[in-house]
Amino acid sequence: MTQSNGPVKIDSKAVAQTLLDQYDTFLFDCDGVLWLGTHLLPHIKETLDLLIANGKTLYFVTNNSTKSRAAYAKKFASFGVTVSEDQIFTSGYASALYVRDSLKLQPGKDKVWVFGESGIAEELKLMGFDSLGCNDPRLDQAFDITTSPFITEGLDPSVKCVIAGLDTKVNYHRLAITLQYLQQPDVKFVATNIDSTYPNKGYILPGAGSMINCVAFASGREPAACGKPNPNMLNAIVTAKNLERSKCCMVGDRLNTDIRFGVEGKLGGTLLVLTGIETEKNALDTSGDHPLPKYYADKLGDIYELIN
Amino acid sequence: MTQSNGPVKIDSKAVAQTLLDQYDTFLFDCDGVLWLGTHLLPHIKETLDLLIANGKTLYFVTNNSTKSRAAYAKKFASFGVTVSEDQIFTSGYASALYVRDSLKLQPGKDKVWVFGESGIAEELKLMGFDSLGCNDPRLDQAFDITTSPFITEGLDPSVKCVIAGLDTKVNYHRLAITLQYLQQPDVKFVATNIDSTYPNKGYILPGAGSMINCVAFASGREPAACGKPNPNMLNAIVTAKNLERSKCCMVGDRLNTDIRFGVEGKLGGTLLVLTGIETEKNALDTSGDHPLPKYYADKLGDIYELIN
């Protein structure tokens, strides 16, 4: 096989074998790569099994912060795929790591205000951080500044950071109290990820970045972002797992997040699959401002189909 | 009295009388100028009566889109101040005027999706426009893409515009459906106003602009803004009331919205009052990127107190 200058399509056994020979670690985005919502894509289980049989190490890297790693492991199990929690990195987990390891907040002492879902609070709890906000049912009440317990009881001075992510329970109460914490200059501001939208059952819905933008604009502050393509997330994985970047391949369905994450993170390889939002035209388009993948495939399952 | 180069403080009978002699029309911002929330400021009624007794015409111009002009007239009445609806311009009314007069949407045929409160929908209705969204109780239900009636029944093809404003009932359902309409390129996008925050009982809360930013970022679109300081609002008032700009004075408590509105709208005068968010230091600060007022006063009621 001759390596061309542009992305190489995985359309023969030889190319698929080259990919396998080149890398010892594969990092996968999940939605759009392994599954679409609740529907596993073709030959995913077989491809993951093939990689494991060939001695590869697999990690799963998602910008979805609504579920914890434990909840993700259960989702894998529901598809009959055995994946342990320590193979999974969510943007909620990456945010909690950032709070502990980069911001140096102290578990058991410093607290975090969560504008987002339980996937963030659960990861914080595992690290020993108390969190406020999130699913607190008092935030489901209509906001009234004279009766909100978060106002009448005063802001908690132990809160040293706001983590903001996708929150499908977003309401004015949550926005207003999040803003009160962000108005305190010593409270740090962390975003799980900045995707403006995400696809769901053929529709484009508001993503974490859109909701975070609301409180960012209101407070006049910019958050530190943790999810793909931010290097914070990759650095956390590389450090935790002691990875050699040149031997890693990032597999994803989005040029601007997954492939950028792999290219800017100086991983040895990137593989774009076309089962998510990108087309073959996009994969080969050199005129955009996004990086190009080293490899691309119609679907991840092609690796299994071509090798066998 | 010698006219200085900087803003002139209204601190003597002579200056107050000069102000009265110079203009025949006064446009007032409301919150922070006439009242703070539900509390009328000192000598407001007496000052307005004095202006009327001197033959002045008064208009009231607010970026608050949550109340209709009719609701505003009731608020004035609750303070014992008689103001008719046609003296009141809200950003919701300005948005409805913009939809009819600038976008040329057709009442009775074209519809508007409202991400905001009843102050917008009521003004649209008075012009003969049907609106969707807004207070529809079905939007208070948790969002589920498979069961939301706004998805299962399909988007309404008669909707030709989205008006977005402050919505204290904001939730994921409202954001998601608003985004579906904004993804249609032929649906126009109008913002009542773009204030990032607003003050309430000593707290700073998320304003219309912050919430609009969420759907603007998600859709990748920028709305046409109607409220102060946008000239759309002043043009609508000047046209509707056949005003001579040089004989008008804008009175407000915010340099960046009210005073900018008057200066950029080429009104004869501007008067900043210090009962809202600005200080005397701000009023005289030439280093900012905001315009300076022609006059300023500790409070609007000083006009009455100085003249009498």
From TrEMBL, chains A, B:
A Pfam family matched in the record: Hydrolase_6
GO cellular component labels: cytoplasm
Catalysis: reaction(s): 4-nitrophenyl phosphate + H2O = 4-nitrophenol + phosphate + H(+)
EC class (word): hydrolase
Binding site for Mg(2+): 29, 31, 253
Keyword Repeat recorded: no
Record-listed substrate binding positions: 228
Transmembrane region(s): none
InterPro entries membership: HAD-like_sf, HAD-SF_hydro_IIA, HAD_sf, PGP_euk
Cofactor: Mg(2+)
SUPFAM superfamilies: HAD-like
Active site positions: 29, 31
The EC number(s) this enzyme carries: 3.1.3.41
UniProt keyword terms in alphabetical order: Hydrolase, Magnesium, Metal-binding
Cofactor note: Divalent metal ions. Mg(2+) is the most effective.
One annotated GO molecular function: alkaline phosphatase activity
Name by which UniProt lists this protein: 4-nitrophenylphosphatase
Organism: Lachancea nothofagi CBS 11611
